[in-house]
Amino acid sequence: MRKSNLRSRVFVIAITTLISLLLILYPRTTDEQGRKRTGQEMLKDFTSWTAIKANMTSHIKLGLDLKGGSHLVMQVQTDEVIQQLTTNNARQSEEALKKANIPIKAVTSPAPGQVIIELTDAGRYDEAKNKVKNEFGPEWEFSKGSATVLNYNLTTIGNDQRRAQAFHQAMEIIENRVNAFGVAEPTIQSHGPEKAYQILLQLPGVDDPERVKKLIKAGSTLELKAVVGQPQVYETKEKALQSAASSGGVAGNMEALPVDPKGGAVEGGFIVVEKSPVITGIDLRDAAAVPSRYNPQDYEIHFTLTPSGAERFGTWTGANIGKYLAVVLDGQVKSFPRINDRISDRGQITGDFTKETGEDLALSLRSGALPAKIVYLEERTVGPSLGADSIQQGVVASGVGLILVMVFMLAYYRLSGLNAIIALILNLIFLIAGLALFKATLTLPGIAGIILLIGMAVDSNVLIFERIREELRHGKIVPSAVDSGFNKAFLTIIDTHVTTIVSAFFLFIFGTGPIRGFAVTLIIGLLANLFTSVYVSRSMFIYWLARGGPKVDKISI
Amino acid sequence: MIEIFKDANYDFIGKKNILIVISIIISLLGIGTFFVRGFNLGVDFSGGTLVTARFKKAHDDTRLRTALVKQNIDATKVTIQPISQIGESTKNDVLIRLPQTVGDEKTGAGIDADKRAILEALTNHYTEVPVESRTNKVDINNSGSETIKNALITKAPLGGQAGAEEEYARLATAIIKHRDNDKGGLINDVNEIPSTGFDPKLIAALKDVFYASDFHILDASVVGPQVGKELRNRAIYVTFASLIGMLIYIAFRFELIYGVGAVVATIHDVIVTLAFFSIFQWEISLNVIAALLTLIGYSMNDTIVIFDRIRETLKVKRRDDLDVLSNEAINQTLSRTIITSGLTFLSVCALVLFGGPVLRGFSLTLFIGILVGTYSSIAIATPIMLWWKHLTIDRIKLAEQAKKAAKAAEEAKAAKPDKTAKSNKSEPSK
User: What pLDDT band is residue A427 in, cutting at 50, 70 and 90?
Assistant: First the structure.
């Protein structure tokens, strides 16, 4: 029975080792140019040490602190979103009431998520409520303030929903922009608690995050706004606003925006437009940079609108023929053409664009405007030279640690020490295979974890061997001493591994990036250790004892 | 076979009171240093900017400070710390740290304002190439491969030649490889760039596109003050959660008081380790906290080994004398404890000596922690368990004695009337 037990054990160990080695050393299937490699090329790899190393490193994901790269944590300012939603709703309900000729005392938004409509005539209360029904969907809660006051409050669910929506939209836009600029294997994910609305961006190999930050910040907001009164450009904001007010502009719905001075021909100044836009970035379907008909060096942006945007735009332009429309890009008026005709689904932006600036702008328009501002919370960059240094130091330290431990084990436990060393080496192989299998990231603390594991892995063997020595001292015969040693030490080994794994688990929760790498490395290593120091080690003893026959009375321990 | 501590029979438990007193004194001293010396919090916890720069020449503190101050960096807040290298010291690495707590946020400046100021300072003061010769040129020691490639594309030294862009990309990668792998990040002179395999026209044009400054940024971290505060809080919560987790596990495997003993021992370890950091003002970074959490898990191991043995012996020899039993257990497991800790300690030594400056905090934490942890399993965990047991067992014993005494008194009372009858009988013999 012993023999078949041994055989099945050897089988299990051989299979796991083989699979692990495959996971680590499997040659890359595509070469640097992305071309698929033939079986012959892949086999040839095993003849060259550099090729083997290259294959190994291709399976193990290196963390930013080893590879070099940038780590950015940003927060989407969702408060702005709620603020804007409130202001827009207030504005739109005011307009709806005006159109229905319902006299209003005031429409105010004293706080984000709160709109108060005060009527002058209590008799038209229900009519008014009906008119603004469209603006305040199910996420708003209505309450009657008094005979003439309608209160609308954004529900908590509505609030959360809108914030989450803005957050996901922002993340998608950032993802598109980062991808479009060809960063290899970026990580973009939600970071931290849900309500914190934080995004984590990891860019391996990018050691200058300024360019990417600029790219992300390029929140190109395109808005089409009605020009108030005559399309006059004034020198100062005050002059512009004064004149607009005198020609009948509504004070609450006016703002003076800077006008883009084009090629020095027109002096920069201010023009007054209506605050609430007719069309915003959400209504954009597509944008492209196209060389101007008149001058091929000059580029223009041609954009098309979504069906709902097109409908709104069509209605508005149809009702405002003869008026002027300001094309506002990032808060700057690019042009203000006259509306001659009902336009529905397309438009263009002109203004000194080169091929590059035009294409950049079209890209940021296409990928959408960020729904809210982004604030950076954390920014770390590691240059690749530090990464290379760290790897080298890590490897040297591992080597030294390994040698120290091996020397001690051989000296103190003699041949059984060899047993422990073989178990340790298998442990390391399984660990690296585990990292490759789970696509876990190896970070610098992770390498420290491996070094730590070298010491901890052997601990389990020491527990067992010391127990065996004790049993021998008490006069047990060798095979039974070995058995007792393993059995009695087993529970203790489980205990010690569980406590360390539990604390590694807490580490995983606490840390990000490099520390998570450490926790994962430690956990995989300890699990592998349970296998090697108990099952494999014992198998080796069984083999040894089987060789010596049933009456073994000495063992090198 | 070599055996250390064979048949060990030291009297640990006998001295348990002394040991507990010593441990309490050390812990109090440790806590004292926290208040007296405070902690050197890294930017991870204080918020702020940390830039690691490698210089061509040896570190000159005054020069660097002047350069930073010229860029309006607060001289009282910035710390400059040269990194000591064990072994080869041809590299001059310096840590520049500028903390930024929640109070000093300059609105709207963005968290990287300090980082940019530091970079400006270095660019302005650590370049031998005069300003006029470097306008419109790119610093080859502080650019990524994309920047280098784009600089070449803009200057277009190969003109409109077909395949020019691929050549620029290839040269950019070669420059980066040479700089980072061979030169440790610092190229002395643009002429040093290896030219084999590239168009000589391209190589000749390099000095018109690039210049080499005297510094190279190894890494830069900016942690917003809010994030710093959050990480501080999180570190404390997770440490407590971890300790409670341990308590529950050991209480479950043994008894509650064992859990308490183990956790108190671990808290002692954490205090002593942090005390070292406080005294020597070593920086407390995220890595240090990671090492502390690892220590909490690891420190339990020795304690468990001893408790396991006590439990095993208890099964065989029922409560002979718990003190004696525990001492036996400790002695029996002594070689195990010393060797297992010793082996892990060996690996940590390798880490401290060869692991490099980035891991220094991590390795030092474990270095001290393992030593203290072994001591505390013997000197604190077991004695606390014993002290409690005495308290509870003695109370039970006293209660039993009291019961016995009460019973005896009752029996005595019941026996009294017989006695008087007897004495009456013996009287007439007079």
Answer: very high
The pLDDT assigned to B150 comes to 75
Chain B CA closest to residue A464: B336
CB < 8 Å to A205, chain B? 144-145
**A123 secondary structure, DSSP code:** G
* Distance in angstroms (rounded) separating the CA atoms of residues A513 and A64: 8
Return the number of CB contacts < 8 Å for A and B: 230
Of the candidates A207, A388, A459, which has its C-beta nearest B343's C-beta?
A459
Facing B346 at nearest CB: one of A408, A413, A463: A408
Does the CB of B33 have a partner CB in chain A at under 8 Å?
A: no
Residue B113: how many other CB atoms lie within 10 Å: 15
Q: Based on the domain organization, do B265 and B349 belong to the same domain? A: yes
The answer as to CATH 3.30.390.50 being correct for domain A2-26+59-67+385-548 is no
Q: Report the residue of A77, A355, A378, A421 to disrupt the B interface, i.e. the one with the largest count of B CBs within 10 Å.
A: A378
Q: Which run of H or E residues covers position A140?
A: strand A140-146
Distance of alpha carbon A319 from alpha carbon A323, whole angstroms = 9
pLDDT band at residue A528 using 50, 70 and 90 as cut-offs: very high
Structure-token pair, residue A113: 């998520």
CATH number (3.30.413.10, 3.30.1240.20, 3.30.43.10, 3.30.460.80) of A78-159 reads: 3.30.1240.20
Q: Which amino acid is at B101?
A: T
Q: How far is CA A40 from the centre of its chain?
A: 39
**Are B56 and B105 in the same domain?**
yes
- Residue B234, min C-alpha distance to chain A (Å): 7
Which range scores top for mean pLDDT: A271-275, A510-514, B54-58, B80-84?
B54-58
| Cross-strand pairs, A118 | A106, A149
Q: What is the pLDDT of residue A266?
A: 52
Closest C-alpha among B288, B273, B276 to residue B43: B288
Whether pTM > 0.80 for this model: the answer is: no
User: In the CATH scheme, what is the code of domain A220-366?
Assistant: 3.30.1360.200
What is the crossing angle of helices B382-426 and B286-316, to 10°? 30
- How far apart CA B256 and CA B11 sit, in angstroms, is 26
**A434 at interface of B, judged by CB pairs closer than 8 A:** no
B-chain CB neighbours of A459 within 8 Å are 301, 340, 343-344
The Cα of B35 is separated from the nearest Cα of chain A by a number of Å equal to 26
Shortest distance, CA A118 to any CA of chain B (angstroms): 37
Domain coordinates of chain A in residue numbers? 2-26+59-67+385-548, 78-159, 220-366
For residue A516, what is the enclosing H or E element?
A: helix A514-530
pLDDT at A551 over 60: no
* B360 close contact with A: CB closer than 8 A: no
